[in-house]
Design brief:
Blueprint (H helix, E strand, L loop, with lengths): L1 E5 L3 H14 L4 E6 L2 H10 L5 E5 L1 E2 L2 E2 L1 H6 L6 E5 L5 H4 L4 E6 L4 H17 L3 H14 L4 E6 L2 E6 L3 E7 L2 E6 L4 E4 L3 H7 L5 E3 L4 E4 L3 E6 L5 E5 L7 E3 L4 H9 L2
Parallel strand pairs: 1-2, 1-3, 3-6, 6-7
Antiparallel strand pairs: 4-5, 8-9, 10-11, 10-14, 11-12, 13-14, 15-16, 16-17
């Protein structure tokens, strides 16, 4: 089995390689990559590998950016010292999410899971195809909202953005109407079409069709102006700027 390691800490990469080889003599690490830039360049020209072990926080950003820039049609095992990225990890071809410090048991469990998946799917690329089909099927076409004693059905393509104030989540339509929605933003991320909607910070999810202007803002952030909402500034948080640019460009 041919494995690619994406890890910016040399000692961590070497430890991971030792665990993988200890797991099976059939394992070979074909490449160790230490940054988003080198990983994108490598994946653009190589397809002969079976699985990727990828650290999330690299020196030049979050490794999700690699998946935004280049297609990785093989299973990914994410490693990180933080648990806050779990939802994002499973939006790509992730089969496991390992919290550091990594143990040999963690690696064994991940590899055993991969073997079970390979029995279900005829090849690794089928995992990616099935994940994409599942993602497409679960996009919602409508949302139910309540206005007094009345229930309305709002088409998703008529929604410009979602935002949270405290524990309350609202949707704003293209006609500038605002409704309370019985969803959390995290749940909305799972059921919205990721080509049309993106979460830009802790409080806002915006529709690409509602964006009127994007301005370079302080501290390497971006400020979004929409055609329907002006109550608060919509700022793309620093850690999401790179992903937002790729999404806005259609990559």
């Amino acid at each position: 089995m041919k494995i690619v390691i994406v890890e910016d800490e040399q000692l961590a990469a070497e430890k991971l390689e030792r665990y993988l080889i200890k797991y099976s003599s059939e394992v070979s690490v074909v490449s160790k990559l230490s940054s988003i830039a080198t990983a994108v360049e490598w994946f653009q020209t190589h397809q002969d590998y079976d699985v990727v072990f990828m650290d999330i926080q690299l020196t030049d950003g979050l490794s999700f950016e690699i998946c935004n820039r280049v297609q990785i049609a093989k299973p990914i095992v994410f490693t990180t010292a933080f648990d806050e990225y779990a939802i994002d990890a499973f939006k790509v071809n992730s089969i496991d999410y390992i919290l550091k410090p990594i143990t040999f048991t963690d690696i064994s469990n991940a590899m055993n899971k991969l073997k079970k998946l390979q029995h279900v799917f005829t090849n690794s690329s089928s995992i990616a195809n099935a994940a994409q089909q599942f993602k497409e099927k679960k996009s919602k076409d409508r949302f139910l909202v309540r206005l007094g004693n009345h229930i309305h059905s709002i088409k998703t393509n008529e929604i410009s953005l979602f935002f949270a104030e405290g524990r309350t989540v609202y949707l704003v339509t293209t006609e500038k109407r605002k409704y309370i929605l019985d969803y959390k933003l995290e749940s909305l991320e799972e059921v919205l079409n990721s080509k049309e909607f993106i979460r830009v910070n802790r409080s806002f999810i915006v529709n690409i069709n509602s964006i009127q202007d994007v301005l370079v803002y302080s501290n390497s952030r971006l400020k979004i102006t929409t055609n329907v909402y002006s109550e608060k500034d919509i700022i793309v948080s620093r850690e999401k700027v790179s992903a937002f640019k790729s999404w806005f460009e259609g990559v």
